[in-house]
Automatic annotation (TrEMBL):
InterPro entries, alphabetized: DUF1272 (IPR010696)
Lineage: Bacteria, Pseudomonadati, Pseudomonadota, Alphaproteobacteria, Hyphomicrobiales
Official protein name in the record: Urease
Pfam families: DUF1272
């Protein structure tokens, strides 16, 4: 099950579970759409994988399956993805 992390790892922007601006890689590294399409050019800076829109968990399921509260932020922001 997806963790639905609460923020962008680059700029620390809030990304609530219902956000359609959250982008993730296959390891669930999480970024806002602005960082993902801007400085990261669609690739995860941690693994080099593709960043795609994170699905939205139905509001009725969040009580039983809550989103993560753990914030992850890259020290110094983000550099372009690994090759």
């Amino acid at each position: 099950m997806l963790a639905l992390r609460p923020n962008c790892e680059c700029c620390d922007r809030d990304l609530p579970p219902e956000s359609r601006d959250a982008m993730i890689c296959s390891f669930e590294c999480t970024f806002c759409a602005d960082c993902a399409t801007g400085v990261l050019a669609g690739a995860c800076p941690n693994c080099g994988g593709e960043l795609v829109r994170r699905p939205v968990r139905p509001a009725g399921k969040l009580t039983r399956f809550p989103a993560s509260a753990e914030r992850v932020v890259k020290a110094g922001g983000c550099a372009p993805a690994l090759s």
